[in-house]
Every structure is written in C-alpha cells, then in structure tokens.
Amino acid sequence: MKRESPPDDQGYPAVFDLEDESEQARWERKGRERPEKFKTTTQEVGFIFAVVMAQLMSEFFVSGFIVLIPTLARELNIPPESTTWPAGAFSLVVSTFLLPLGRIADMYGAYPVYVGGIIWTVIWSIIAGFSTNEIMLDVCRAFQGFGPAAFLPASMSLLGSIYRPGPRKNLVFSIYGAMAPLGFFAGIFFAGISAQYANWRWYFWIGAIISAFSGLAGFLTIPSDIAERRAMNVKMDWLGTFTISVGIILVVFALTGSSGAPHEWGTDYIIATMVIGVVFLGLSVYVEGWIAEAPLLPPELFKIKYMKPLVLALLLTYGGCGIYLLYATQYMTEIQGATPMQLVAWWSPAAVGGCIIATVGGFVLHLLPGTILIIIASVAWIVAPLLFALVPVGGQNFWPWVFPAMVCCTIGIDITFNVTNIFITTSLPNRQQGLAGALINSLLQLGIAVALGLADITVAQTADQGVAQKYKNAFWLEVGLAGAALVIFVGFVKVDKAKAQATADERVEVKS
C-alpha cells in the first residue's frame, strides 16, 4: 500500500510504503492528520470554532453576571442577602444535569445535544434580558443553566471522539482550554460596557447573539453522529439521575444558603436539606454500585489508573478556581475601587495568558510529561490567591500584586484543564466520550459550587473582621484547597506525555 508524502526538493511527491511504517510512526502520522470526518480544512475550522465557543459561553454567563450584580440589585430591588441566588442558580443547574445530559449525548448523539443546548441558551438569554424582578431573573438564570449542561459535555464528546491522541488533538484541546479565561474576560468586558455605558439587559442579549453564531456554525460544520450513537445502544440510568440530582441540589443549597439563613446552620430548613441531600447521595452510591444496569458513573471509570486521586485533586483545584474568580473580582471592586472597565483591564492578563498558553501548549504537550505540567499549574494556583491574601490594604497595587496573580491564575487553570482533559478523554472509549465531557465539566462546576458555599460560610463567619479581611480569609481557604490538590497530584497521580498513540477502542481490540 503506497502513500504520497509532501513534495521533495524537486517538486515531485515522495512515496513510501505504509507496510514498512512502524507502529509508532503510524500513530504519529494519524495524530497529525486532519480527521477523516472533515472533508475540508474550512469545515474543520468551523467545527473547532463552534465547539470551543461552548467553553467561552459557559464562562461568559458566569463572570459577567458577577459584575452586573450591584446594578441588578439596585434596579430590580434585590436585597443583599438574595444576590447569591441568581448567580448560584445557573451554576447549580449546570453542575446537577451535566451527567444525565452527557449520557443523552452518548445515547442520541452529541451533535443534536449541542445544537439543542445552544438554542435553549439563546432563548433563555433573550428572556433574561427582559427580567423585571428578582423571581423572574432567578427563574431565567436557572433555566439558562440547562443550555451549558447540554452543550458542554456534547462539545467535549465531539472533540474526544473525532480527534485521535496526538499533537493535533493537543492543539485543539489547548484552544478549548484557552476559552475559559477568554470567556471569563469576555463576560466581564461586555458586562462592564453594558453596566457603565448602556443597559444591563444588553449583557444577556449579546450573549444570545454570540451563542446564536456559535450554534449556526455548529449546525453547518459538526458531523452528525446520530446514527453512530444509536447503534451503540447506550442506556439511560434514570434512578441514578434522580438520586444524584436531588442529592447535589439539596447539599449545595444548604452550603450556599446557610450563611444567609436566619440561624445559619441552626436553621431548620438548612438542617433538613443537608440531611436529605446526604441521604440521597448515599442512595446514589448504592444505586450506581449495585442496582443500575448502566450507571451514570460506571465502576470501570474509576478502575482507570490514577483516576480516583485525579478526580479528588480536580475537585479541590476547580473549587479554588471558583473562589478566586468570584472573590478576586469582589476584592478589586470593593477594596481596590476598580470600575467595571478597570476590571476588564485588570483581568486582561488572564485572557492574553490563556491564548499564549493555548498556542504554546498545543506544541509541547506531547513533549513534556503531564505530571510536571500539573505540578507547575498547582504551584501557580497556590501563588495566585496567596498574593491577594497578602496584598496590603489601601491603593490599587496592580503591578506588584494583581498582575502576577492574574498570570498565575491563567497558568493554573489552562495547564490543569488541558492536561487532565486530554488524559480523561484519551482513557475512555468512543461510546463514553459524553461521559468524559460530563465528568470533566461536573468536576469543574461541582467543585466551584461546593467551594463557593464553603467560602461564603467563611466570609460570613468572619465579617466582623472587616470587609478586606473577610475576603482575604476566602483567599486563605483557596490556598489550603490548592495546597491539598498539589499534595495529591505529587503523591498519587502520574500523567505521561500527551503523545500520539492508539485510542482506547484500538487498545481494547489489540488485547482481544
């Protein structure tokens, strides 16, 4: 069997015999080639744009809303103790329904789930822009969360199933990871412009416009996997979905609502929701381990080497990330006096850094051990909140304190996200790529939701120490979480180079 390579010095194509090609050379070649599902480079570029925008949009609707909270509280008469709910409702719905919607993507195809999630997001973003009171805003934010819960695992499933392990996959996943800080920056940017120069409603409508363009690109360029997924005969775990969802909602509700409850943890409804939530999570463990025929979290997932400690470390890391994103914004606003547009400027190093890391990471992830990269990222995640915890109160202190914190922030999130996403998607077979996407984003969203609940408790319990110090206490909590994650990564997780290799399905075929 012959294959033509690029032309030689005289302009004639060199020809080599694929039968003489070594196994590793074959994986290297396949890991660099354009996937067969794309007929043209234009289609691949459109696909990448559509899929990576999923990550940008999810961050857009989190970060920008934080900037809008003071404006919304004033114009919609939202009391201070209720401002966490419109922000928390979105993340809570996303974290709760990622797993079941990831399973639906494995059952019916990531393509329709992605497009459907985008359409849903557009509709509820438009409606949210017409909110007239707190209740309407809360409902819109909650329903809006179902969109990312659908298109996030679907987008990761598409990337994981279409791209083989190798440099091309590394580059695409790096671009995907860069969309997290870029989306966070975009959210702050458009929220700042809307709040300071226009009307807060435009923040939601701009998000709807961006989402619509992404959905259109996806509709036109994403290869349909409906027939392929249906042929896999993947089943839904409805009982597991019910017990896990109810458990997560109640536990996160108790954590988030305890600080604002009349008697805090002594409040009856806080105690009740926490106890019932823990009971349901306990039931979910029994259901998933002994009853469900097709559990949402199959046991073989945790039989993958290093997966258990990796999951724990990522929960701690992403939880710390959520604390940093929220409280760094609040500290810069309330203590350092930053205006909405100053926030845009101060967060710009994280956005620019994300783009740089994406560009560089795509070319070095197959050359450097993942463990070394994760350790670098973990140390950066300790330094970022440590700088805010130690920054002198008074003055803006951007260059000596905030700027290096932002650089460390993007190093921490981008490297961790890229290295671990490639590891997880490469470890799972094609029929479980929806699970891979759901697991990755569930760890991110759930880690943030739980850690923010703990941070909220910390801030509320130390409010008598002053506004600046109570925020610094939240940063110290993040330092602790990041330090624990570093210990787990160093002691219990080993990730090799993201080199070209056989897929999980191909490795199974060889063994059989």
Automatic annotation (TrEMBL):
It comes from the Eukaryota. GO terms for cellular component: membrane. Keywords: Membrane, Transmembrane, Transmembrane helix. One of its GO terms (molecular function) is transmembrane transporter activity. The keyword Lyase does not apply. The keyword DNA-binding does not apply. Residues 1-35 are annotated as: Disordered. Residues 47-497 form the Major facilitator superfamily (MFS) profile domain. Its main location: membrane. It is a multi-pass membrane protein. The chain crosses the membrane at residues 47-73, 85-104, 111-130, 142-163, 175-197, 203-226, 238-257, 269-289, 310-332, 344-365, 372-395, 401-423, 435-455, 475-493. InterPro entries: MFS, MFS_dom, MFS_trans_sf. Pfam families: MFS_1. It is found in: Membrane. Residues 23-35 have a biased composition (Basic and acidic residues). PANTHER family: MAJOR FACILITATOR SUPERFAMILY (MFS) PROFILE DOMAIN-CONTAINING PROTEIN, MAJOR FACILITATOR SUPERFAMILY MULTIDRUG TRANSPORTER MFSC. This is Major facilitator superfamily (MFS) profile domain-containing protein. It comes from Aureobasidium subglaciale (strain EXF-2481).
